[in-house]
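Q: How would the structure tokens look for this protein?
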Amino acid sequence: MSEKIKQAIVEELAPTGRLRAGINLSNFLLVTGKADNGDPVGVSPDLAAEIAGRLNVPVDYVTYPGPGALADAAAQGEWDIGNIGTEPQRAKLIAFSPPYCEIAATFLVPPDSPLQAIDDVDQPGNRISTKARAAYSLWLENNLEYAKLVQSDSTDGAYEQFIEQKLDALAGLKPRLLSDQASLPGSKILDGQFSAVQQAVGTPRKNELAPRWLAELVEELKASGFIAELIRKHRVEGLSVAPPG
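A: Here is the predicted structure in token form.
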């Protein structure tokens, strides 16, 4: 790569001289804590810092309470890269790298539920509780034929309405559902997954050179073991390195 192209990539990804990295605080697998200075800690912030290092610029974390708010900010110029689940709806505004990790999404069903397998859930009359605009919720919006989604503004809210409204299933990431299962004796997590939420590095579609560079870098970081080492470093269970792109 020529120095001219390298400089053009830096100008696209760090026009302010710093890499502004959009971070979704609601994904507890990717953001596992907070530093003394308030910066987020975890796999996602560490990956952003590595990208900034490759560009030889400092990183600034721009945090959001959920993936929907992060995605909306793509059109506002608030961040230069955004670490977020890749979904078709979001790809209208965001150019995604190949995924760097993935998380299994499945269903929790209440005690004595007749639903025994994932294929049983998408049937007429069934109601599924979910967090609005999460990547797995967007997948369900695109793929459900019969069951109805009942959406909440938060993961906790989705669990609460699952209980209070006696809904048929709760959709979510398996690590979180394991916690919910422990709070509801007799409940069951259905085997397998209806999708794998794939986390990627996005950049606004206006950028021309950056998407390819980010794609190549993400593949390099997967192949080198860097992503796997971040998962081990932060002791995250339920998160796995995505397959090669």
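The chain has a mean pLDDT of 95.

The two ends are 21 Å apart (CA to CA).

Upvote if useful.
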